[in-house]
Amino acid sequence: MQQIEKLDSITYDQFIENYLKPGIPVVFKNASSAWKSSQQFDPAFFRTHFGNHKTTYKGKEYSMNEILDVTEKSTLENPAPYPILFEIPLQLPELLPMVEPIHMNYAFPNWFRSKFMPYGKFGNSIHLFIGGPGNQYSLHKDMYHTNAWITQLYGEKKFVVFPRDQEDLLYPENASFISPINIMKPDYEKYPRYKEATPLSIILKPGETIFIPNGIWHTTVAASHNISLIFDQLNGYNFKAWKKDMYDYSKKRSTFVAVAKYSLAQTLGSLCKLSELAGSKM
């Protein structure tokens, strides 16, 4: 994996064969043009339509207007709180019809869109992230081996990803999905193997969408005041890894809970697969 490609267009079958199956990140320049709304999703839009909608961060409640104010003023020296996010289906449900088809004709099937899958559980989420200069996410791979789809609605954000074979260079804590390494200021004395890592970076611009396959370590650094829409995907290609995570994460609590979660995962997967075979659109 030498670089992250930016594509003007590609067929669904080409995406499956060239990127999804081999697990290679890719950027779509205009996949979000498939959405029903041609609305410009900038701060003015969110102030007008959702200004008083609220969410919480570390126990403190923020309105949309307050979040936009504080992130707009964010600087490298004095960064805004991050990540402040909204659960779109629960907190901004009016936004969902505007971004349908959310799969943009690429991110399907998505078993998380099935009626059998509980929202907010087991990696199933649709988020709106708002940030500004100085904001940086932890280096991680997504829990439950979900595929991540991030569309930049406003502003620019830098994405940094690592090839799958470099996990040992990132010192995951207790074999978890979080790395302690700060890619902006790596401590090579404490983490010497990180010198061998070959991170790839790309700037995501408004209207562009990045596909990050399951198991890929990545992080983001805000290049400007920005707003992103992020959702996760599960289907037959990453189901086995998702099911294994359901067991592994629960085993830390108890073997009984782990077995129960594994059985639940198998049942949910079977139901989704049957729905897919029956022609259900997900």
Can you put this structure into words, describing what you see?
The structure is a single chain. The chain is α+β, with helices and mostly antiparallel strands and 282 residues long. It has a single domain, classed as Cupin (Jelly Rolls). 23% of the residues lie in helices and 22% in strands. It is built from 6 helices and 12 strands. The strands form 3 sheets. The chain has a 7-stranded mixed β-sheet. The chain has a 3-stranded antiparallel β-sheet with strand order 9-8-11, with no helix packed on it. Helix 5 runs antiparallel to helix 6 (255-277). The longest helix has 23 residues, at 255-277.
What are the SSEs and their pairings?
Elements: E1 5-7, H1 12-20, E2 26-28, H2 43-50, E3 54-57, E4 60-63, H3 64-72, E5 84-87, H4 88-91, E6 126-131, E7 147-154, E8 157-162, E9 200-204, E10 209-212, E11 217-222, E12 226-233, H5 239-251, H6 255-277
Parallel strand pairs: 1-2
Antiparallel strand pairs: 2-10, 3-4, 5-6, 6-12, 7-10, 7-12, 8-9, 8-11
Helix pairs in contact: 5-6
